[in-house]
Amino acid sequence: MNNNPKICIGLSGGVDSSVAALLLKRQGCDVFALFMQNWHDTTGTLHGECEWEEDRAVAEMVARKIGIPFHFVDLSDVYRQRVVDYMFSEYAKGRTPNPDVLCNREIKFDAFWDAARVLGADFVATGHYCRKDAFVNEKGKTVYRILAGSDPNKDQSYFLCQLSQKQLATALFPIGDLTKPEVRRIAREADLPSADKKDSQGICFVGKVDLPVFLQQKLASREGDIIEIPRAFYEGRPLPQTLEEKAQPIRYRREDGKVIGRHIGAQYYTIGQRKGLGIGGHAESCFLIANDIENNLIFVGEGQDHPGLYRSALRIRPEEVHWIRPDLALAPGQERRYQVRIRYRQPLQGAVLHAHSEGLYIEFDEPQRGITPGQFAVWYAEDGEMTGSGVIDQ
User: Which domains, ranges and CATH numbers included, belong to the chain?
Assistant: First the structure.
């Protein structure tokens, strides 16, 4: 390794990566910027035109302002193969994927890192709000840790939940100890062109989309019935007793409720969804509680406290359990208490992880609203270290 290692900053044109680049430059690092284009198609996007050209222009101005070299790479083919095709596949199964998590694992810290390494990089830095540290274990091996960002309102560690020790070894997060207001202040004081740029929203590198229109590129629409499940359905039902029963979602049938509307395809909807259902005539909003892809049915319940929205456990398939810290992995028969979240920005929830041969079960202290297959469950130790994650199966 060089005495002054070369660092590639993934410069997106946003304020976070801009300040990350500025801080590295101020520290005397040998840093260069690399902007990646990951998407061309505007089908289903809500801003009409793809924004990457504007983002690139801002990123280039930022690099010039800071005084670092600027490079460009087109990763749109690999992004479509590894992220977008995965999205389509998951939605086709009735699961709701998180493309931002996949983008970090497959693109920013894999394909992008490969491109940065060709340009001579020893490390790749991003503008994520999270922290990294390391220690040497008793065998003399360096173990890397991901910790929640210092800003509780902006912690983005969740999106890095699928990174490996190998990926963490060359990753840097320069703004992890800062809050968003501090980042904005630094950018304004340095007169960076991105100082007041709004945060990006929507799918990573695609932007905000009309999801059904976006998915119709590969998943054909097919009208079906919306079935409302009344609260009376749950009266007298035996409560689940075993861990397996608690993690098993209810399989509703058409005859369990009444038809109250039509939808355009069960694969376009997600657990807990309220908007876009087109349901009226209720005192409270209706929420999606289940979808049946095989029979093209979606099931809804009235009220955000509807019993169908809550469950106290979930399961992750063995092949979809990922330990950021392999040394902490649970063997079948073991269990351990963690703080868990099942979606970004959700407050951490107390839970116990149970390792079984048929998968990893997470049993929560309190029932959880909207457990969604395809999303990532992420677990943290008491000191804020994120130690593992997995795709929710049920």
Answer: 6-213 (3.40.50.620), 218-308 (2.30.30.280), 310-392 (2.40.30.10)
